[in-house]
Write a structure and sequence with these properties.
0% strand; 191 residues
Length: 191
């Protein structure tokens, strides 16, 4: 209950008294999941410091990272990722934190996930990437942020450029056209 309410001091007190950090509800939800939903960074950090399993998942594969992304809690995402959460953990349907953040229009969460190495080329079971999900939900600012991230990655020569090549075919034609120089940089031969 303390984690659900974002009461970090109470969480720390309970942990110091020997509370089981990964105890789960009947549905399988852990205190870390509740803290992620509440958006309380201090509570999330206290649970991680107390040894919480950052990748604990419900039966459908939903993790604390997924819950934080759903609600757009970028600071919680960063705390979870810095605590070792798998950035590309997927649900049984193949949805990732990046795809749900894109779907819900949470640009700060999308940027946090991209900065921590989220794979833009991963597809759901319906063969949709996060880019396509953003396009379908008319999240133009997210599409532009992803394009800008990939462009910066291509300029540095890191691994995002090949991922762009895999994901770009999923974009609507108008976004592909707007991506112009970024797509060109990603397709340029390595020097």
């Amino acid at each position: 209950i303390a984690a659900r309410r974002g009461q970090a001091a109470s969480v720390e007190l309970l942990l110091s008294a020997g509370a089981v950090v990964d105890a789960a509800s009947a549905a399988g939800a852990t205190a870390l999941m509740y803290a992620a939903v509440s958006g309380d960074v201090a509570c999330v950090q206290a649970l991680i410091a107390g040894g919480a399993n950052v990748d604990a998942a419900l039966s459908d594969g939903v993790t604390a990272l997924f819950f934080a992304a759903t609600d757009g809690h970028a600071a919680v995402l960063a705390a979870l990722l810095e605590g070792g959460a798998s950035v590309d953990a997927a649900t049984m349907s193949g949805r990732t934190a990046l795809s749900v953040a894109a779907e819900n229009g949470h640009i700060a969460a999308v940027l946090s996930l991209l900065e921590h190495g989220a794979d833009i080329g991963l597809m759901t079971m319906a063969d949709w990437t996060a880019l396509r999900i953003a396009a379908e939900h008319a999240e133009v600012d997210i599409e532009q942020a992803v394009v800008a991230h990939v462009g910066a990655s291509a300029a540095r020569g890191d691994a995002a450029a090949p991922k762009w090549q895999e994901a770009e075919a999923d974009l609507p034609q108008e976004v592909q056209k707007d991506a112009g120089p970024v797509a060109d940089a990603c397709h340029a031969p390595a020097t």
